[in-house]
Amino acid sequence: MKYIKQLDSLRAIAVILVIISHWFSETHILNHLPNGKIGVDMFFVLSGFLITSILFQNRNNLNASKGEILRTFYARRTLRIFPIYYLTIFILLVFHKYTGTNIKHDFIYYLTYTSNLNFLLHGHWDGILSHLWSLAVEEQFYLIWPWFIIFTKKKYLFSLISMFILIGVSSHIIMSDFPWGAILTTSCFDSFGVGAMLSWFIFYNKSALNKFYTLVKTLSLILIALIIFGNLVLSKNYWTILPLRTANSIISIWLITYIYLNRDSNKGVFRFFLSSPILIFVGKISYGIYLYHNIIPQFSTILIESHLIKSSELLQWFFKLPYSTLSFNSILVILISWGSFKIIETPFLKLKKKFVPNKKESNTG
Q: Could you give the C-alpha distances from 258 to 6, 27, 272, 274, in angstroms and in order?
């Protein structure tokens, strides 16, 4: 499937929502809606859609063995995900005294992408590393999903995806009285599955794609009204017909389907918003932004208090201004994420072209 630049804009929106939830207090007006949950669920749905599309494309268009498809998939995922993740956690391990976390004691969980299980087992977050639970969930999903997609017969793929969605919804219901149940990988299957469902329609039932869009649009409008009413009026979750993650996922897939169907459109929402160079730029570096956004403020606070405000009266004045620290951290996160993308991520991404399954041979004789 060809690159769709507007999906980068959606990534930008998702990471901005996560940052708002972490950088502003729960009582702040910007956090009346569950921004962090919406943003993370949007990332899960995007991953389910894009990863499944890659796997379907390899199944359909490439004359490669199942083993080769799996090897190339994991090689390309490794090049995309591992470099800055492992660089980050090893740097934090070296400077663990300044992190305010248990990374030294719990390093094995971060090393093995199982931090969500660590938080679940111990019943508490780990400061500036707490957001890594979602990266752990994604990696655990990547470990199992390709095997199901590659080894399941075509006629059973719809049932497989539907089963994963049902497992996700059921996991939420079963674990509803357990505070940490939402960070179990099974509790995220509905988000990944909803994304995969769009991919199935695109690859195997495109004639019904518009009907799928109408369905998710109708459900989304109803769910948006319920979410707004529940959070702004009731301030409770009694309104939920579906688990919140499932609702977020349906709304996310509506937006993704809309983008897919109108990706070459010149509509105003595309020209002035979804095709915005700024949003697309933020989306391209969103992995780094997500990874660093909780970590950088911890170290910038040390820098500001220990050095900057002591070195200049002008800086003392600046950091007393409202939202000055927020502005400083925002610039730092963008600059470091951009530098990370250019210097570390891009060289590894260029290596992905070495890991492509063999293409079909021509039948021209």
A: 10, 33, 16, 11
Average pLDDT over residues 62-81: 91
The DSSP call for residue 359 is B
pTM beyond 0.85: the answer is: yes
Percent of the chain, pLDDT > 70?
A: 95
**In 10 A of CB 341, how many CB atoms?**
19
The alpha helices in 123-243, defined as continuous H runs, are 132-151, 157-174, 189-204, 209-229
Distances (CA, A) of 160 to 16, 57, 206: 32, 17, 18
CA distance 271 to 108: 46
Mapping DSSP to helix (H, G, I), strand (E, B) and coil, where does residue 112 land?
A: coil
Contact 31, 9 (CB under 8 A): no
**Residues contacting 314, CB < 8 A, separation 6+:** none
Which is higher by pLDDT, 176 or 294?
294
Element (H, E) at 77: helix 66-94
| Euclidean distance between CA atoms 132 and 129, whole angstroms | 6
Q: What is the DSSP letter of 257?
A: H
Range 91-98, long-range pairs (CB < 8 A, 24+ positions): 92/129, 92/295, 98/298, 98/299, 98/302
Surface-to-core class of residue 158, CB atoms within 10 Å of its CB (0-12 exposed, 13-18 middle, 19+ buried): middle
**Distance between CA atoms of 148 and 222, rounded to whole angstroms?**
32
Q: In one letter, which amino acid is 360?
A: K
pLDDT in tens, 95-130: 999 999 999 999 999 999 999 999 999 999 999 999
- Contact criterion met (CB below 8 Å) for 345 and 84: yes
Phi first, then psi, for residue 359 (nearest 5°) are: -80, 160
